[in-house]
Structures are given as C-alpha cells and as structure tokens.
Design goal:
By secondary structure, the protein is an alpha/beta fold. It has seven helices and ten strands. The strands form two sheets. Strands 1, 4, 5, 6, 7, 8, 9 and 10 form an eight-stranded mixed β-sheet that branches. The longest helix is centred in the middle third of the chain and has 11 residues.
C-alpha cells in the first residue's frame, strides 16, 4: 500500500502577509521542515500550491482545480491528480512534527478512511492526517454543495480521532504549533 505525502501550501497567508511555506524560519523555509518530516514516512511527496516557486524544492507541485476554497481544494486536487492508497496531508506552516505519531497513523490506515489527531481538550488537527483514496468521493460531494469545512468531512467518513498520548508532547512540546503570524517567526 503506497502513501503519498501532500504538503498543503496553497493558502493566501493573509495573516502572515506573504507565502508562509516560503517564509524563512530558523534558517530555512517553513516547507523544508515538513519535507524533512515526510521523506522517511512517505513513498512520494507533492506540494499543493498554485505557486511555481515550490518547484525549487524538487517535488511535483499540484495547482488547485477548484480555486479559493481552502485546504479542501488542495486535498481534492492532489487526490484527482495522483492516485495513491493513502495520503498524508499536512500544512506547510507546521515545523514541529512527530515521526512516531505519523508511523502510528500509517499502521492504522487500512482500518479507517481518515485518521486525525485529537489533543488538549478535544482539539482536532485535520491538517495532520492520513486520508484514504475513498475520501475523494466525499470531498467531491462537499465541494458540489459548497461545504468546505473539513470537520464536516471528518463526520461523514469512517474517521479515527486518535487521542495523542502525552509522550509525544513530552518529546515535542510544540507539536501541532503552526506559524501564522510574523511574530511567530521571531
């Protein structure tokens, strides 16, 4: 069973004021942290973005088929363009990730349509998850009715809400921290 890593870098970055994935963070662009994280756990990696600047990172770039609908548009485009058994979707602005957590998700992927982490008072992280190819039909239905909320997608599918063990936060207290504002970079 193959797994495709898909970095979602197509956002408008309105709070940041520039493309977040390309923004330098501790000496390198944010997207490089995510690439380094995905390389050991995925068979192939693509970047979902309308910007050709991401081609410089040596991976195929997938533009949005349906523009301006947020992460769901990137997910839909990737699944339409490249067939894989499973997709590890992750946002480009998350430099602190856990290989161990990703490996747990990958082990469980044949039993669920979607696996997403839940932590700290039931906070769900839909942009750090493994999604089956079966989810494509659900994405299409939601896009057809202009419902772009990932939480609604999770409710429709056979989703495992994986309760993240504390050990992952002990090893990585910034797990799931996103870099959204210029002040986050400093």
């Amino acid at each position: 069973m193959n797994i495709l890593g898909a970095i979602l870098a197509g956002g408008k970055s309105s709070r940041m004021g520039q493309d977040k994935g390309l923004m330098p963070y501790k000496g390198k662009p944010l997207v490089e942290y995510v690439l380094e994280f995905l390389i050991p756990v995925c068979d192939e990696i693509v970047i979902s973005s309308n910007s050709l600047d991401y081609l410089d990172f040596g991976h195929q770039t997938i533009p949005d088929i349906v523009p301006d609908i947020g992460p769901m548009g990137g997910m839909f485009s990737v699944m339409n363009m490249i067939r894989a058994d499973s997709y590890f979707f992750i946002s480009c602005d998350s430099p602190y990730n856990s290989k161990g957590l990703a490996e747990d998700f990958i082990k469980e992927r044949q039993h669920y349509d979607i696996i997403v982490p839940v932590h700290s008072n039931e906070k769900i992280e839909p942009l750090f998850g493994v999604y089956s190819y079966k989810v494509l039909s659900f994405l299409k239905k939601q896009i057809d009715v202009q419902d772009y909320k990932l939480m609604n997608l999770l409710k429709q599918c056979n989703t495992l809400y994986y309760d993240v063990p504390n050990k992952f936060f002990s090893d990585n207290p910034l797990l799931f921290k996103n870099i959204n504002l210029p002040s986050d970079v400093n």
